[in-house]
């Protein structure tokens, strides 16, 4: 946080958090980095039991009655990250059947049964079904109706509504493109119809701010969640050329707290465990973008609307050198991830923040920050941040997470299986026959 001498509610909350961290981290004073690394432990069994409780008691989630597919996603994805099965009393088909009840006959999913379709729970439901995998889960999505719903949400040349008559922001761009990607459906028509690339990046009015991060919509403050949504949407759409990448990277690296090690969502705000993913996952995506662009430029290949100026400022352009990238060396999955020789954020500090300050080692679950209660949202995104940290560090921090696709936040193996399933001739023939009927 930038200290300007002015006392505010936020600055006092920051000071209180730092005082709390003194007691939480005092045992590590004088320890070597290796000692700290080896002493940290992810209490998997406690977290699994906490997540199992959420599945067993899912019918009692009344306060989040419009976000029930999200609860399914947060819990199932967390269990998948921990390589844990469902509890004996709950079968995956129970979740599949519930999500079927949330699917609208006009396409897409609502926040609960008989609710209007909305792009956010549509992404959450699809991610859950992809994570569960198998014939029952994957065949339950009405892809043709869903595509029709997404196209209806396109606000011509101005991104997408989240629902009929709803708000327009970067979340709509991401949830639409990510859902179509998981379902192995053509994204080009939606990209063109909505004009989302110009809405997010360069154009007369766009969501990228003077700070470098992205706001929810043009004129908004740069925010970690919206920045992830905007960048990931453009990565999936192959349109990162519309972004000022150096500016975005500059903003992202300055969101890691110097004292806490976690990430804040906005400038001069407190860190929050969930931004371990929303901000932490930006770096593998940015690394991928920059390495691919440099490789194409080095080969003299044509990159639409991209030049070295995209990768550096005009002053830096004359002396810029390509970044060094190497394979992650992972043995799981078929994809190699670009991992920098020198990570763009402090992965060890982030891991210390999450495991020492955000983890409830007794009751299970992870939280926003010390002094707050655990919940399934923060559990999911703290674990997702740890997984991104493990992958981005090239395996230097090993908490035994499976490989995760940073642009979707589902297991890479599950995503590959879903894309293969939806691309199979049998599924295409079946859907073609249903359309003719």
TrEMBL record:
<feature type="domain" description="Prenyltransferase alpha-alpha toroid">
    <location>
        <begin position="42"/>
        <end position="409"/>
    </location>
</feature>
<dbReference type="GO" id="GO:0004660">
    <property type="term" value="F:protein farnesyltransferase activity"/>
</dbReference>
<dbReference type="GO" id="GO:0005965">
    <property type="term" value="C:protein farnesyltransferase complex"/>
</dbReference>
<keyword id="KW-0862">Zinc</keyword>
<keyword id="KW-0808">Transferase</keyword>
<comment type="subunit">
    <text>Heterodimer of FTA and FTB.</text>
</comment>
<comment type="function">
    <text>Catalyzes the transfer of a farnesyl moiety from farnesyl diphosphate to a cysteine at the fourth position from the C-terminus of several proteins. The beta subunit is responsible for peptide-binding.</text>
</comment>
<dbReference type="InterPro" id="IPR026872">
    <property type="entry name" value="FTB"/>
</dbReference>
<dbReference type="Pfam" id="PF00432">
    <property type="entry name" value="Prenyltrans"/>
</dbReference>
<protein>
    <recommendedName>
        <fullName>Protein farnesyltransferase subunit beta</fullName>
        <ecNumber>2.5.1.58</ecNumber>
    </recommendedName>
</protein>
<comment type="similarity">
    <text>Belongs to the protein prenyltransferase subunit beta family.</text>
</comment>
<dbReference type="InterPro" id="IPR045089">
    <property type="entry name" value="PGGT1B-like"/>
</dbReference>
<keyword id="KW-0479">Metal-binding</keyword>
<keyword id="KW-0677">Repeat</keyword>
<dbReference type="InterPro" id="IPR001330">
    <property type="entry name" value="Prenyltrans"/>
</dbReference>
<dbReference type="InterPro" id="IPR008930">
    <property type="entry name" value="Terpenoid_cyclase/PrenylTrfase"/>
</dbReference>
<dbReference type="GO" id="GO:0008270">
    <property type="term" value="F:zinc ion binding"/>
</dbReference>
<keyword id="KW-0637">Prenyltransferase</keyword>
<dbReference type="GO" id="GO:0097354">
    <property type="term" value="P:prenylation"/>
</dbReference>
């Amino acid at each position: 946080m930038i200290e300007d001498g002015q006392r505010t509610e936020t600055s006092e909350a920051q000071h209180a958090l730092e005082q709390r961290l003194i007691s939480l981290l005092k045992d590590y004073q004088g320890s070597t980095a290796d000692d700290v690394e080896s002493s940290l432990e992810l209490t998997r069994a406690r977290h699994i039991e906490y997540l199992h409780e959420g599945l067993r008691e899912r019918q009692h989630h009344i306060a989040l009655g419009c976000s029930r597919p999200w609860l399914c996603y947060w819990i199932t994805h967390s269990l998948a990250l921990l390589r844990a099965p469902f509890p004996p009393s709950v079968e995956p088909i129970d979740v599949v059947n519930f999500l079927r009840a949330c699917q609208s006959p006009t396409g897409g999913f609502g926040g609960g049964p008989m609710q209007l379709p909305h792009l956010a729970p549509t992404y959450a439901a699809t991610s859950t079904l992809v994570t569960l995998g198998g014939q029952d889960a994957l065949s339950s999505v009405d892809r043709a109706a869903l595509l029709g719903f997404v196209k209806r949400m396109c606000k011509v040349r101005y991104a997408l509504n989240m629902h009929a008559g709803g708000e327009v922001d970067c979340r709509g761009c991401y949830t639409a493109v990510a859902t179509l990607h998981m379902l192995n459906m053509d994204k080009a028509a939606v990209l063109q119809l909505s004009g989302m690339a110009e809405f997010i990046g360069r154009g007369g009015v766009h969501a990228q701010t003077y700070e470098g991060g992205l706001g929810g919509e043009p004129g908004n403050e740069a925010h970690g969640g919206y920045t992830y949504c905007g960048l990931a949407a453009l990565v999936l759409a192959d349109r990162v050329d519309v972004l000022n990448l150096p500016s975005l990277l500059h903003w992202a690296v300055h969101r890691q707290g110097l004292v806490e090690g976690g990430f804040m969502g906005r400038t001069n705000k407190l860190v929050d465990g969930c931004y371990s993913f929303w901000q932490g996952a930006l770096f593998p995506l940015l690394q991928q973008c920059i390495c691919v662009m440099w490789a194409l430029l080095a080969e003299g290949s044509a990159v639409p609307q991209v030049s070295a100026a995209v990768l550096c400022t005009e002053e830096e352009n004359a002396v810029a050198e390509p970044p060094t990238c190497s394979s992650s060396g992972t043995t799981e999955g078929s994809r190699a991830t670009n991992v920098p020789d020198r990570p763009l954020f402090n992965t060890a500090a982030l891991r210390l923040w999450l495991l020492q300050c955000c983890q409830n080692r007794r009751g299970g679950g992870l939280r926003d920050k010390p002094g707050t209660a655990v919940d399934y949202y923060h559990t999911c995104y703290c674990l997702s941040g740890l997984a991104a940290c493990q992958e981005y560090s090239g395996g230097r921090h090993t908490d035994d997470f499976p490989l995760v696709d940073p642009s979707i936040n589902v297991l890479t193996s599950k995503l590959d299986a879903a894309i293969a399933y939806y691309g199979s001739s049998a599924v295409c023939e079946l859907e073609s026959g249903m359309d003719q009927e």
